[in-house]
Amino acid sequence: MAKKLPSPGPLPAGQHPGCDTSGMILVHRIFRWLYRELPELVREVEPGDTARSAVVGRYAHLDFFALHMHHETEDMVLWDRLEAREPACTLHVGQMRAQHAEVAVRLARIEPQLAPWVVTADPRLREVFATDIEGLRDLLSAHLGQEEDDILPVAGEVMSQQEWDFMEEHTRATLMAHRKELGKDVMSLQLGLLIASVPEAEREDWVRANVPAPIRLLYLLLMKRRYDSAMRELYPDRPVPTMV
């Protein structure tokens, strides 16, 4: 379970400003990939092929859940702290809040379309669904780029590493709490996607530096097999598109 997050304001005693925000670049890379691929996967489902729509629909649900969780975690951790500690960032924080709200509006329009399309594989529903996801993709792409340019440098200066790490801890705890809903392979998918988001030439060093030894062993023995199986299910007839 994630530790309790201290209140916004001055840094807690014993913590110091300055944190490594580079992991957020990998997370953003995953979201760009997920929402680039999802409309294509939806459109590839043949009319009436409800077996395939069920497969794609399961991963669409995971994509939507992940985006909700990511933005809710940022809302909880980032904005109040940045405004309190770097008032010059207030305008950018306001833009981030507004963009998160717009993403939530788009998701609220998209998510109710999932079940009707899954159970029918109706091509008319499919096209509206895929088009709305593309609109979300374009909004998200612009938002992620602005966050990388305007927010991450400030967060790296004014937040402590403990505060930054809370976001990863909270994400992991939330996924574990929802494993029954999301599927037993959700933690394998999370780690597999993170590894895939690292350029191949840097991957081995990144895993050694960022994944604890017991988890590395578990990944090799079990989690990688689950991740690979999920990717084969999503892309049964072609190679998995690269993320980087």
From TrEMBL:
Pfam assignment, any one: Hemerythrin
Domain of life: Bacteria
Protein name per the record: Hemerythrin domain-containing protein
Gene Ontology cellular-component terms listed: plasma membrane
Domain Hemerythrin-like: 27-154
Protein's organism: Pengzhenrongella frigida
